[in-house]
Each structure stands twice: as C-alpha cells, then as structure tokens.
Write a sequence for this structure.
C-alpha cells in the first residue's frame, strides 16, 4: 500500500543503511534489525522488550501493541512519544512531516540510472513502454508525451486492426474459432470471441499465439515509421507489453 513502491529500495539495502546510521550515532548500543511481516512484528511476542518509541500519529498503534501483549500474557511496554520533524520545503500537496512518500514522489520525472545501452537496438528512435491497467492514466500520459514531440503508438488500436477483415490475424482467428464468432457483415464479434476464450487457458493461448506476434510486427512497422519521420522518442501505449 506504499506510495510508488517500485521506487523503494530493497529491504537488505535499506536495513544496511539503517544499521550504518545507527552505529554511527551510537556505536555502543546493540541493534537487532528485523523485517516486519505484519503490523506488529516482534513487539507482541518478544518478552524482553520494555519500551516502544511512537509518534503522535502512531500512539494508537502502540496502545494496540500493549493490548496484544496483555492477550499474550506479556507485560505492557512503556510508550515513549517523540515529535515528528517537519519538512520546511514541503509543497501544498505533500505531507507536512518529513516523509519518504513525498521524497519518492519528487523522484518522478528524474532519471534513476542511465539508460542501458543495447548494441542490438538502434539508438533512434528511443522506445519507451507505457503500461498499466484500465484507468491508470496511460492515455493521458501518452497524450502529454505526444504533445512534447514523441511518436505515440496505441497498441489497443493495433489490436483492433489485426481482427478486421483483411487484417493479418483475421483469417487465422476465424479458422481457429469458427464462423460463429462473425457478425453478419463478416467482422469478428469480439464479445463472442471473448466468451469463447476467457476462462479457458488453452483457447486463450491459442488466440494470443495468433494475435500477439501480429501486433508486435505492426508495432515494429510503426517504430520504423517514427524513424522515417525523424522522431527521437517513440512511446508504446500498451496494457500488456511484449518483451
């Protein structure tokens, strides 16, 4: 449930940085850093704990810990409340406290590491995959990138095109799934086709084995078109990205 979890460093790295910081501040103390697999962690099972540090916003969590400890036959912990440091540079849309969520949001739009150079790929156009579920904002982001000069490829439109009469997948789809998937005008009824394949793993794979390679080929053709137009950046808007 964290904001932008993909920008959170791996646990092992975070734990190592935390240990380095703590030992730098107070090397005489013993630090036992453990991952939390649930909201309570060892606080409700470790009989050797005596104190729990909380903030004003987590005090209720500390009180819940003590209730759990009593249920487990353990003594209550002393709750030591600290004040949270305020972020003097927070914006109107950010939390007032110093927050890792705000820091991750500020990373949006920055380059986390240099693009990986692949000798097998041409330098231009630079192809960016834009993916996400329905309602995630792909279309809006693609439109913004298009206004900035990127060549946008809408994979959903290509997906419709492969099914059209004369399209690259039309004949094979009809041959594989029968004339009952056709409308009276000869076009493929995608609702009928969907009912045939969804929930049936083998049929769905048969369909994707026909359609996805054709979409991939159409994408490659569009990338070549972008190159011919002198576009430096090509954005592929797709719900499912092809490796």
């Amino acid at each position: 449930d964290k904001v932008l979890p993909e920008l959170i460093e791996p646990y092992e790295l975070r734990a190592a940085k935390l240990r380095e910081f703590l030992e730098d501040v107070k090397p005489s103390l013993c630090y036992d850093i453990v991952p939390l697999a649930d909201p309570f962690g060892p606080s409700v099972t470790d009989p050797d704990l005596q104190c729990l540090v909380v903030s004003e916003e987590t005090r209720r969590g500390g009180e819940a810990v003590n209730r759990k400890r009593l249920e487990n036959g353990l003594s209550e912990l002393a709750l030591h409340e600290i004040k949270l440091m305020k972020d003097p540079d927070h914006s109107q849309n950010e939390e007032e406290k110093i927050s890792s969520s705000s820091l991750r949001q500020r990373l949006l739009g920055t380059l986390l590491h240099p693009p990986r150079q692949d000798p097998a790929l041409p330098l231009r156009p630079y192809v960016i995959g834009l993916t996400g579920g329905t309602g995630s904002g792909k279309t809006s982001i693609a439109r913004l990138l298009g206004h900035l000069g990127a060549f946008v490829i809408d994979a959903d439109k290509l997906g419709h095109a492969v099914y059209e009469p004369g399209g690259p997948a039309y004949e094979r789809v009809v041959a594989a799934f029968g004339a009952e998937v056709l409308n009276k005008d000869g076009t493929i009824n995608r609702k009928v086709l969907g009912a045939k394949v969804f929930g049936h793993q083998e049929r769905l794979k048969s369909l994707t084995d026909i359609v996805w390679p054709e979409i991939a080929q159409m994408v490659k053709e569009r990338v070549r078109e972008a190159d011919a137009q002198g576009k430096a950046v090509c954005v592929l808007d797709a719900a499912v990205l092809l490796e």
